[in-house]
TrEMBL record:
<keyword id="KW-0804">Transcription</keyword>
<keyword id="KW-0805">Transcription regulation</keyword>
<dbReference type="InterPro" id="IPR036271">
    <property type="entry name" value="Tet_transcr_reg_TetR-rel_C_sf"/>
</dbReference>
<dbReference type="GO" id="GO:0003677">
    <property type="term" value="F:DNA binding"/>
</dbReference>
<dbReference type="InterPro" id="IPR001647">
    <property type="entry name" value="HTH_TetR"/>
</dbReference>
<dbReference type="InterPro" id="IPR009057">
    <property type="entry name" value="Homeodomain-like_sf"/>
</dbReference>
<keyword id="KW-0238">DNA-binding</keyword>
<protein>
    <submittedName>
        <fullName>Transcriptional regulator, TetR family</fullName>
    </submittedName>
</protein>
<dbReference type="Pfam" id="PF00440">
    <property type="entry name" value="TetR_N"/>
</dbReference>
<feature type="domain" description="HTH tetR-type">
    <location>
        <begin position="14"/>
        <end position="74"/>
    </location>
</feature>
<feature type="DNA-binding region" description="H-T-H motif">
    <location>
        <begin position="37"/>
        <end position="56"/>
    </location>
</feature>
Amino acid sequence: MSVPPSPRSRRLDPRRRERIVDAALDVIASEGVAGISHRKVAAAADVPLGSMTYHFTGIDQLIHEAFTRFATSVSDQIGQRMLTAQTRDDAVDALVAHIDDDLFGSRRDLVLTHELYTLAAHDDRYRLLTTDWMKRSRSALERHFDPTAARILDALVEGLTVHRALDLEAVPPGLARRAVSLVVGNERRFDEPTRQ
């Protein structure tokens, strides 16, 4: 004979915390950091409102954890693409695919990137996140490019995403490939000593 569950027992939901973080990113993407609240995130995650304070000390902790997950996921994307590239040409193709597909392909991610940039401009905790993100991206690029070229390529990626997010005109086809090719074609010059 089975014993009925206690009325106080909780429904098993091992991914609840992860769902809340994912939902926080969705709310930020649709309403901005200024529009986030416990109630909106709980509704988006389909969890009781009390789960918010059970899993997070406050909305600030939730926002920081959400952006940590986001920044890590984007730097993991470029890391994986560079890891699978076998040749220099493969690396160029992989970087172009990262720009065109991973970054330009998602309006949500473009918005989240800019929300994170805004926080980082005012709060050192978020600047540490973006600094770590840049280091990880450059490290991935350095598998195939020298450190100076990797830094320039990383800045190029960020610049292209800013333009993509803010420009009302469509991105010209092939822009990412042309931009990467211009940098890579001039890579030898980056390590030459500067003439005084």
